[in-house]
Amino acid sequence: MDEAVRIRVLVVPASKHGGTAEIGRAIATRLRAGGLDVDVAQPEQLHDLSIYGGFVIGSALYLGTWLPSAATFVRAFDTEIRQRPTWLFSSGPLGPGHPEEPIMEDVLTDLMETTGAVQHRLFGGRLEIDRLERTDRFLAEWIGVPEGDYREWDAIEEWAGQIATELSQAAPVTITIDEE
């Protein structure tokens, strides 16, 4: 008997202060609503990707690049990631005066080539000065980064819905169960 198996998706949000992790959880919720099985894990928690049929990988941006844990994850699992549909996202712009494209072009090009991603999306970030470590707080105040929550939840949900639709329309994975 052949049984259709739903695609299992892994959402990997690398987050330093929790804002990007919240985006990852929102993406996972929308993917589940679209009929997909979804796991969410931080990059440093992962050792085996063999059960996943697709990935959504993201990171907070710091000084124009992804967090080291996210970059290391992508390099460590590049072969597995490239073999399955993958979407990338970055979280970082913080309102007026902040660069609209805060990810360095060479960083984005490398991420897209390494993962073979279908798409990369940039979402606004969140900054709460009081939650930062001393060094990060000093740097944010010195640079003049605006405090606030600039995440656009409707855009995040819409993008995750598009991913759910694309994955749901992909050829179903089937397994054969031998009955004796």
What does this protein look like?
This protein is α/β, with parallel strands linked by helices and 180 residues long. The protein has a single domain (2-176), classed as 3-Layer(aba) Sandwich (Rossmann fold). Helices cover 37% and strands 25% of the residues. The chain has helices at 19-33, 68-76, 78-82, 105-115, 134-143, 153-169, and strands at 2-5, 8-14, 37-40, 54-62, 65-66, 86-91, 119-123, 126-127, 148-149, 173-176. The strands form three sheets. Strands 2, 3, 4, 5, 6 and 7 form a six-stranded mixed beta sheet that branches. It has a two-stranded antiparallel ribbon with strand order 1-10. The protein has a two-stranded antiparallel sheet with strand order 8-9. β4 (54-62) and β5 form a beta hairpin. The longest helix is centred in the last third of the chain and has 17 residues, at 153-169. The termini are close together.
Strand content: 25-35%
Please tell me the overall pLDDT.
85
- Runs in which pLDDT lies below 50 for 5 or more consecutive residues are 173-180
Q: Going by CATH, what is the homologous superfamily?
A: Flavodoxin domain
What form results from the Cα inertia axes?
globular
Radius of gyration: 18 Å
Order of helices and strands: EEHEEEHHEHEEHEHE
Helix content: 25-40%
CATH-assigned fold name: Rossmann fold
Name of the level-1 CATH class? Alpha Beta
Total strands: 10
| Span between termini | 11 Å
Count of separate structural domains: 1
